[in-house]
Each structure stands twice: as structure tokens, then as C-alpha cells.
Amino acid sequence: MILLLWQKIRYISVGESDEVQLFYYFVKSESNAQVDPLILWMTGGPGCSSLTALAFEFGPLHFEKVDNTSSLPRLILNPNSWTQMASFIFLDTPVGTGFSYTNNPDARKSDTMLACNEAHEFFRKFLFDHPEFISNPVYVGGDSFSGLIVPIVAELIAEGIEKGIEPPIDLKGYILGNPVTIPTDNDYEVPYAHGVGLISNELYEVCTHLNCEGNYQDIDPRNVPCLDDMNTFNQASNDFYLLSNLEHGNFLEPLCTFYAPKPRNLISDGSLDEKFLELKRRQRFLASMCRSDGYKLAYSWTNNDIVREVLQVPKGSVGNWQRCNYFGVSLTTTVRDCVPYHANLSRKGYRSLIYSGDHDLIVPHIATQAWIKSLNYSIVDDWRQWLVEGQVAGYTRTYANRMTFATVKGGGHTAPEYRPTECKAMVKRWLSHDPL
To answer: Which SUPFAM superfamilies does the record cross-reference, listed alphabetically (predicted)?
Structure first.
């Protein structure tokens, strides 16, 4: 498996004059690659490398978590890999993400539609390079910010099919996890926080019923009472640690920023290993309990010269690799509402799986349920439990537009990272057209 993975890593040139070099990892299905689905996966951010999905969520390899900062991290097999039932292309997009790069400063500037067009161009060129996969059923997938990317890429592929653009693609649908979808996603943080007991009834009633009427983000500056209410909410969050001292990706997890800051904060002022070793013994012990601490292994691995040579990364093309290159990616969000793309794909008959880790404060599951409801499709399988190994793994509902929504119980913003066994079962059933 490891040798197979390394043999399928390379770049594909896209954009004007092929100036953008998009990097990808390609892993064939461990079952039957000739007929199993082919899934193009794009991690969110924007600017988060697809190695995040490969090595920390559902890819075939994970880093072995050992307290050894002096040697190259080891890769071990993941028993819950989704590559057991599908082939995956893990794509670093947009340019500046992971190992994707360009030598033209002008080409570093991107926007939503440009990034989607480049991903679409990449995928068609990939199929030309790998014609043995042209007949495979195709899905597009991603999580978080990719909720604004995946539906557009799927729509571009669908339009290409209608226009007869080569190569022919057997698009079947798309998969999204905790997806950013509409500007009002953030409005659901307050009611969600109240629903799970993070803010009081009184504060919720003040924010919701009296003045703000459910709109907490784009507040009319003339609505002074609402602004005052939100100041109260934010001050309460800071003064009483209602939300500010929680891990927003999964509020059940410990907040690890102090002990294991986001890698992009460490990389700017010293090596990860040095910073980690500087921590006091007690702090290092607590850091080892943090899920995010495993991310530092990816830095040791991707910034190793031998690894880069194996990955075929040209010398000098990419500086320090960053898991999420928030400041190095120049992407303007030009599409902020993807509901019309979901509606259009539904009209064309494409399947979709939308799942939400139910302990995510970043994109709460109730926000996702709200825009799904706005599509106004009838329910064909109403709200019910779905089980894994006899235990409740979450709740699900299926709609007449062939869209399945599922919560993942105990899952966070990247649900497969928190509930790998359950998410593997969920995706396997859905790809097989079985009920969750």
C-alpha cells in the first residue's frame, strides 16, 4: 500500500499557460479499483492540505503517535480507511495549498470560481493520464470551507458531461462534511450553544427574541439594541468563559492552543520540535493528550528532504510546508451561497451525502439542516437513528432529491477524525446505496 501511494504522487499543470502546479496523492481502492468509485477530495481552509484528510481523517496511512521528536515520523496503516471501498485523489487546492505552487506571482491570486475551474481542469487531465478510470463512478468530496468548492466543481463536471467535453465522466454525486454553505451559517452558533447548554436561557432569549431576531452576523448598525445584546453575549463569553475557552472544532475536547498551538503559529518563530521541547514537563504531558498535537508530526515529515524527494516536490518550489496555509493562500471568496448549486445538482438527479459531526461549533449541524430544509424537498426516510456495532452512531434523514443528511454522534468539525469507525460505516453504506 505504501509503495503504491508513493508511485501515484505527482503534479498536474492547470490554468493559463499551465502556470499552476497542483499537487495530489492518489490511492487506488483496496477492494476492486476497476469498478469502485473514484473520489476527488478537497480539504477546506481555504489552504488546508489534503494530507489532513489522508493522514488524520480517513486515508490509508496515519502517523504513528510516539513521543519522539528526533526522528522521522513513521507511517502506519489505518484500519478505518475509506480507500477500502473507493479510490481517492487527495488534491492540494487552491495554489499555495500544501505542495501546490506557481512561479508566477500573478497566478498566486485566486478566487472561488478560478479555484473551482482549476480543480475541474485538473480532474479531466487526471483522467486523460489515467484512462483506466474513465468508466468508474465519480464523486466529488470535501469538508469545511470546501462546502463552497465541491458543489461548484460537481456542477462544472455536470456541465461538461452535458456539453460532451472529453473525457466522458460518470459523475454520480458528491459528499460533504460540516460544510460552509451560506453566509448565515454563523447565525446558528448562538442557538446551538444554547441547545447544548453553553449559554443560559436568559442570554439566549435576550439575543434571539427581543432584538436580533436570529441574525447575529450582518447586524444593521441602526439596530442599537441588537448590537448591545451581542456585546453582552461576547462579553459574557470572555468574562465567564462560555465559548471562548472551548475547542470550537469539538467542544468536548480539551482546548489545546496553549499547549499545542496551531502549527502555523509555531512555524513562524521557531521549529516545532524546539517549541515542543521548551514546554515544561507538565505542559508536555498535557500536550500529548491533545488531538492537534499529532499535526506536528506532519511538519517533521513533509519538511524532510528525503520525503520531498520521494514525493517529487521540486527543490525551491515550496518553502516550509504548512498544514493550513491561511496566510500564504490568496483566495477571494466570490461565491458565498452554494444552495443554488445544490438545488441545480438535485434537479439533475445527482446523489449527495451531507454529514455533520454534532459537536462542531464552527458549522453547527442545525445550520446545515436549515439550508437543506430551504431546498423544500419532501422527506422519504424521516429522522431516525443509524447504528454501528449495535450502538447509536448518529441520526439521519433522506430527501426526495436523493440527498442524505446524517449527524455523527460525538463527531467534531472533521467528523472522521473523531469517529473513524462510524464514518467508515456511514460512507461504505452510502456508496453501496444501502440505508445508513
So the answer is: alpha/beta-Hydrolases (SSF53474)
Q: Which of 185, 293, 360, 365 is catalytic?
A: 360
User: Kind of pairing, strands 137-143 and 38-42?
Assistant: parallel
Active site residue 144: yes
Asked if the structure places residue 245 within a domain, the reply is: no
Please pick, among 62, 342, 359, 413, the residue that the annotation labels catalytic.
413
Residue 230 lies in a domain: no
Predicted confidence (pLDDT) per residue in 377-409, tens digit: 999 999 999 999 999 999 999 999 999 999 999
Count of the separate structural domains present in the chain: 1
Q: What is the pLDDT of residues 358-376, one digit of tens each?
A: 999 999 999 999 999 999 9
Strands 87-91 and 20-27: antiparallel
- The answer to whether residue 243 is domain-embedded is no
Q: List b or e across 392-428, with b for residues whose CB sees 16 or more CB atoms inside 10 angstroms.
A: ebbbbbbbebbbbbbbbbbbbbbbbbbbbebbbbbbe
The answer for residues whose C-beta is within 8 angstroms of residue 149's C-beta and 6 or more apart is: 42, 46, 93, 112, 115, 116, 119, 142
**Exposure of 307 by Cβ count < 10 A (0-12 exposed, 13-18 middle, 19+ buried)?**
middle
CATH number for 16: 3.40.50.1820
Beta bridge partners of 243: none
Q: Write down the catalytic residue from 144, 300, 346, 356.
A: 144
In terms of residue numbers, what domain contains 349? 2-183+335-431
| 71 Cβ contact partners less than 8 Å away, ≥ 6 residues apart | none
Query: From the CB of residue 253, how many other CB atoms can be counted at a distance below 10 Å?
Result: 17
Whether 155 is covered by a domain: the verdict is yes
For the question of residue 360 being annotated catalytic, the response is: yes
Quick one: the chain helix, strand, coil %, rounded to 5? Answer: 40, 20, 40
What would the pLDDT profile of 180-238 be if each residue is shown by its tens digit?
999 877 778 888 988 999 888 877 776 665 556 555 556 556 667 677 766 666 655 44
| 364 prior amide bond cis, ω within 30 | no
Q: Are 166 and 202 spatial neighbours (Cβ–Cβ below 8 Å)? A: no
* The amino acid at 285: F
